[in-house]
Amino acid sequence: MSHSAHRAAAAFDLAAMKRALEQSDADTIASLYEDDAEMEIIDRNRPPSTPMRLVGRPAIEAFWRDVCSREMTHAVGETISDAHRAAFVERCAYPDGCHVVSAMTLELHDGRIRRHLTVQAWDEVSCG
After folding, report:
1. Does 128 fall in a domain?
2. For the whole prediction, is pTM greater than 0.85?
3. CA–CA gap between residue 7 and residue 53 (Å, rounded)
């Protein structure tokens, strides 16, 4: 296998991540992470000094299973990626009118997510 063929085989599939998020497909989302991946989430209740930290695919998969089980819509946009990083914005809406916007950056290794950072804002007015 040539070097360029190996690189193509190891490319991160950002389109698959987008589809999986928009379809609430936790299995596919979890499959995109390395076994020892790390995820960090920062928001109003989890500030930078004490973010939520998830280590390992089982913990990350449990998080995504919870998110994907909720009644809400997901729309992914502003996507960009290269061999080492990917980033996008996810906009979520709950039926009660609550909106959440998450900016996500991914550090990639061999086409899989090694580190994931989410900074999110919840609609303070409509979210109880």
Report:
1. no
2. yes
3. 30
